[in-house]
Structure formats: structure tokens, C-alpha cells
């Protein structure tokens, strides 16, 4: 993928009306991707290395990757069309036959879960990063309110 990309991190995970808000960004800008509540929970568990009673779907995928010698090299959130974000999962497999890179179309929430599990870099295309609304002030305000004892602060990943 030869596009310019911007490195970002997950800056916060918060419950929202229609699911959950994943705040992604860097020191320049933060933006939000809406995900299903269960996906937000999974991403949060991977970020915290929280133990799980039973393997989740993403744990199964990770086990398959491990068995095949595949690692999540990086993810790239590529574009926004009709209020839907698109992403690419970049996988690397290295074995006695050589090194192979595979790029897979995937939901951003799945990409974020796998990147969190593998501690892999997260990128956003430069064009998309320029296009999204900066939500830094909103996240700062939420973190301030949360640090005063609210539940939100506990869920923020900064």
C-alpha cells in the first residue's frame, strides 16, 4: 500500500448511544469511530491484557495466526464512505520459504481488536486524517470529568 499514512493510537473507549466510541489519534488530532459495544469490550480487554474465561473469536484468529506463523504487521484505516469507515489488515508470514505480505479488507473494529492483541501499529490514511473532525477537546473534557470519579475515566485508554 503506497499511500501516505499517519500513525495513531487508541486514545479512549467510551459508551455511546448507538454502541461505543473509539477515539483514535495522536498529538495533532483525535477522531471517533463508532463500533458495536461488544467490539469495544473486546478491544478494551486486549488493550488491558485482561484475562478471559473462554477464548473469543479474535483469540481464535490469533491462535490460527500463531499456528501459521502469521503476525499482524499493521492496520490502516483507509477511508470513510457513506458514514462507514474502511480498513486494511496487513499480515506478514515468514517461514522457511520466505516472507509474504497479505493485505486484507476488514472492518476497522476487527482490525483494531487484532492490532490491540498483537500490539501492532495503527495508521490512518493521510487523506482521511485530514478529512475527519478533530474531537480532541471532547476527549479531554470527558477525561477531566472521568478523573473526578466517573466511570468514563476508567474506560479511557490514554
Structural write-up:
There is one protein chain. By secondary structure, the chain is an alpha+beta fold. The chain has one domain (5-155): Bifunctional nuclease domain, CATH 3.10.690. Helix content is 37%, strand content 39%. The protein contains six helices and seven strands. It has helices at 37-48, 57-68, 108-118, 126-131, 136-147, 151-155, and strands at residues 5-16, 19-25, 30-35, 70-81, 84-95, 98-106, 122-125. Strands 3-2-1-7-4-5-6 form a seven-stranded mixed beta sheet. Helix 1 (37-48) runs parallel beside helix 3 and helix 2 crosses helix 3 (108-118).
List the helices and strands and how they pair.
Layout: E1 5-16, E2 19-25, E3 30-35, H1 37-48, H2 57-68, E4 70-81, E5 84-95, E6 98-106, H3 108-118, E7 122-125, H4 126-131, H5 136-147, H6 151-155
Parallel strand pairs: 4-7
Antiparallel strand pairs: 1-2, 1-7, 2-3, 4-5, 5-6
- State the helicity in percent bands: 25-40%
Subunit arrangement of the protein = single chain
Could you give the order of the helices and strands?
EEEHHEEEHEHHH
CATH superfamily: Bifunctional nuclease domain
Task: Using the coordinates above, name the CATH class.
Answer: Alpha Beta
Number of domains: 1
Number of strands: 7
User: Shape, please?
Assistant: globular
Uncertain spans, ≥5 residues at pLDDT below 50? 149-158
Distance between the termini: 28 Å
Strand proportion = 35-45%
In short:
This protein is 37% helix and 39% strand. The protein has helices spanning 37-48, 57-68, 108-118, 126-131, 136-147, 151-155; strands at residues 5-16, 19-25, 30-35, 70-81, 84-95, 98-106, 122-125.
